[in-house]
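Case study 2.
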Amino acid sequence: MAFRNIQAGMATYRGHGGDRGDAYYAHPTNAGPHPGVVVIHHMPGWDEWTCEVARKFAHHGYAAVAPSLYFRVGDVPKRRSSPRSARAAASPTSRCSAM
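Prediction:
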C-alpha cells in the first residue's frame, strides 16, 4: 500500500451539559470525502496507543477521532489496579459523553 499523507492534532468537542472534552483527530490530507471511525480507548483511558490507532486509520484513508471519554473525571492512574479500584474508576452511565 502506498503511503498516504495525514494530518493529525487535537480538537475539542462539546459533551452533555456543555462540558468541553478533548479528542485526537487524524485524517488523510487528500480531498475527501473520507469514511469515519471513532476510536474508543481502553479502561485506563486515553493514551499514546489510542492516538496511534487513529493515525493508522488515517493512513488507510479514514477520518478518525479518538475522544477522551474520562474528560470529566480524569484518566485512571498508571498503576497496577485491583478489581476494587477498577470498579471505583468506572464511570456511571450518567457521566458518559455523547458526540
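The mean pLDDT is 80.
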